[in-house]
Structure to design on (325 residues):
């Protein structure tokens, strides 16, 4: 098992990660790369979308930098610049620690996270030559979004450069009100957990158009009608109440419909990503800077208090008289 995230076979330099700075200058914002983290249920089309976005950006002469964070993926349809599988052997982790598939993915991710400083060094080196950095994550969504290592990876990326979470939805499989609501609640929980600029991508629109989703999110009554068509049970009335809760989530939510298969919706996807980057600078970054400042202030206050106590405890004592004769 390698212990160093590899990039084209070369070792990362021994440097600290870059910082996004205060992001105040237009030129600095323009020059900063953008991290796009693909998250979604198994089979929603993350990997296919990665491949499509990769091809689209190549066409735009903006070749992205691609990072695979799924240790268990058998075959990638694209060339990853950094691949977790080059650092951690998922099958070896499973047998060495006697783990099942999910435990194997989680432990592989934990091991990889211990080398995150090296990843960030590579990212920093590549930041001037790539506008977009794409991150594919495991289909076992909770392993990335609810694990300490997933949080460390996400927070480290977001503290360094503008970062957008792209939540991929399998549109044909969410066309029933119950599945739609469950998926949106999941999306809401991920937004709440990461607190990052967020974009819901309704994928597979070549199979089912995402018009129904847009209508349900913008018109509460149309969703209620769909619910009552569905059934009249307790679940339906529970979903009615939850729908009210989600209404506020929808009001702020950025969505786009795409087909990773045909490429439909790619320009619109990037318009929304640009919009999410703006939110990163306008809201996320100032809030992050406030948190950092508060942490520093509280650490300083703690140190001052320790010093004050130390000084209070100080007393001058007179020793025994020494006979110099
Ligand atoms: N029709 C259609 N099929 C799609 C689209 N995107 C992905 N698929 C299909 O959906 C299936 C799952 O796609 P993947 O890209 O492997 O999904 P994933 O989310 O990466 O899956 P995991 O790795 O299990 O998490 C594959 O059969 C894809 O061909 C799309 O836009 N349209």
């Amino acid at each position: 098992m390698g212990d160093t995230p590899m990039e084209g076979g070369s070792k990362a330099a021994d440097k600290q990660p870059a910082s996004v700075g205060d992001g105040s200058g237009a030129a600095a914002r323009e020059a900063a790369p953008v991290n796009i983290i693909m998250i979604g249920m198994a089979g929603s089309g993350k990997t296919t979308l990665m491949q499509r976005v990769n091809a689209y950006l190549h066409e735009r002469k903006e070749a992205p930098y691609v990072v695979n964070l799924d240790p268990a993926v058998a075959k990638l349809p694209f060339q990853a610049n950094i691949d977790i599988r080059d650092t951690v052997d998922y099958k070896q982790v499973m047998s060495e620690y006697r783990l099942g598939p999910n435990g194997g993915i989680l432990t592989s991710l934990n091991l990889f996270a211990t080398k995150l400083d090296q990843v960030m060094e590579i990212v920093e080196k590549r930041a001037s030559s790539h506008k977009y950095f794409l991150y594919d994550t495991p289909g076992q969504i909770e392993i990335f979004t609810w694990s300490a290592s997933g949080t460390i990876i996400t927070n480290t990326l977001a503290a360094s450069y503008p970062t957008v979470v792209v939540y991929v939805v399998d549109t044909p499989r969410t066309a029933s009100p119950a599945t739609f609501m469950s998926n949106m609640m999941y999306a809401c929980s991920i937004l709440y957990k990461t607190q990052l600029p967020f974009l819901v991508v309704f994928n597979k629109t070549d199979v089912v158009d995402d018009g129904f989703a847009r209508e349900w999110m913008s018109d509460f009554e149309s969703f209620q009608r769909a619910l009552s068509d569905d059934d009249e049970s307790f679940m339906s009335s529970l979903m009615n109440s939850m729908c009210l809760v989600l209404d506020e989530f929808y009001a702020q939510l950025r969505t786009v419909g795409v087909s990773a298969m045909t490429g439909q919706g790619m320009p619109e996807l990037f318009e929304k990503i640009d919009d999410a980057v703006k939110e990163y600078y306008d809201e996320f970054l100032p809030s992050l800077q406030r948190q950092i400042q508060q942490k520093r202030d509280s650490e300083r206050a703690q140190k001052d208090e320790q010093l004050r106590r130390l000084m209070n405890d100080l007393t001058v004592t007179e020793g025994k008289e020494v006979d110099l004769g």
Summary: The first strand starts at residue 34 and ends at 40. Residues 40 and 168 are 5 Å apart (CA to CA). The radius of gyration is 25 Å.
